[in-house]
Design brief:
- With 487 residues, the chain is α+β, with helices and mostly antiparallel strands.
- It folds into two domains: 28-238, Acetylcholine Binding Protein, Chain: A (Distorted Sandwich); 244-358 and 417-487, no CATH class.
- The protein has nine helices and twelve strands.
- The strands form two sheets. Strands 1, 2, 3, 5, 6, 7 and 9 form a seven-stranded mixed sheet that branches.
- Helix 3 (240-260) runs parallel beside helix 5 and helix 6 packs across helix 9.
- The longest helix is centred in the C-terminal third of the chain and has 47 residues, at 437-483.
- The model is unreliable at 1-13, 16-23, 360-394 and 477-487 (pLDDT under 50).
Length: 487
Amino acid sequence: MGGHPRRAGVPLLPPLLLLLVLLPPGALASEAEHRLFERLFEDYNEIIRPVANVSEPVIIQFEVSMSQLVKVDEVNQIMETNLWLKQIWNDYKLKWNPADYDGAEFMRVPAQKIWKPDIVLYNNAVGDFQVDDKTKALLKYTGEVTWIPPAIFKSSCKIDVTYFPFDYQNCTMKFGSWSYDKAKIDLVLIGSSMNLKDYWESGEWAIIKAPGYKHDIKYNCCEEIYPDITYSLYIRRLPLFYTINLIIPCLLISFLTVLVFYLPSDCGEKVTLCISVLLSLTVFLLVITETIPSTSLVIPLIGEYLLFTMIFVTLSIVITVFVLNVHYRTPTTHTMPTWVKTIFLHLLPRVMFMTRPAGSDGHAQKPRPSYHAELSTLNCFRRAETRGCKEGCACQDGACSHCRHRRIKISNFSANLPRSSSSESISAALSLSALSPEIKEAIQSVKYIAENMKAQNDAKEGRKAQEIQPLKPEEKSTETSDQAPAL
């Protein structure tokens, strides 16, 4: 009565069987792997090559998997990549019978515990040549060891930027053992090219192909032969970014040079536009200089194009200054030389199929004024100033016999005069009769006004002839500048 009654028909499980039921399923397997690990590395030396016979080489199967092309530094000529180095070899000390260890066929161990080939990147551009061994290696019961460490390599790459940004590059990556020759380690290439199944596409470069080759090289330092596996990485630059941000602006700015020769000379902005275009091209040339390698071996074509365009813009500035200098010359300050008239007004218009403006011909016949002088029209300006015919001033209506007689004599004399200047005709007419001082003063004023108007007309015609002259070199420079961007 003091204890609990036992349930009838329910047997009590043994304590050992109950403990086995409550254990996790992997507890027995972990115990087997623990015993296997202790047995494999009990007398293992990770420094000694895993061969039964010292004269036998260790066969290393090698393959590189490209994970990412990080960047290509054109200035320093360095290619940075993220790679997985797959290495497979056989270690006779790491064999076991799976039946003795609960059927365990594989085991993962730290890479520091086993022997590894010292395969490095020969053309490494940084000081760290070794691969990080923090990843684990996969062991198989047959003694096969598979080790796939990831690594970021910075390899030297000779970059040719002649056709930048439409260039192709060939960068090589040379892998091999640094300490062991072919008699100790022999490399076997897995496949014929780099594994790109897990490649992450780059936004600037596209991989065309990456074949691999094995070489056996004898270096000058040593007598032994050292094997290596070299991958040739053929990459192509994606030019969309540079086309939009570099090529198209350069072309548009270059074509602005043509507009300089279409601007009128009176606007005063021709030289300003030329200098603005020259400064813009200089800025783009500096941008390209920071992008491409600092080498004198090759010059990119786009750099040659910008330099060539800058030379043409500089020449356009010189021509514009010459055109403006000629444009603002006047006949009163400069006299047009005969050779300039011959070349620019007669020869060049025929060569360039140009027609001279109407009225610019200096040999055109000008209408000559009639010099029939009738002194009866030179009346006094006010009726109160008329003093009679005897004092030399014609009357208002010319009805008196004295005025009629004098008008006939002057008309007959003017008909016999040569068609010379108006001043000579007036002087000849004045010599026939004695005029009053008022009329003489008026005639001298009219003569002065006529001479000034004639000088102004001559200056205007000379200016028109000089305006035709700058048109020739300006149009010739326009044709040359039209061809410059196409080069």
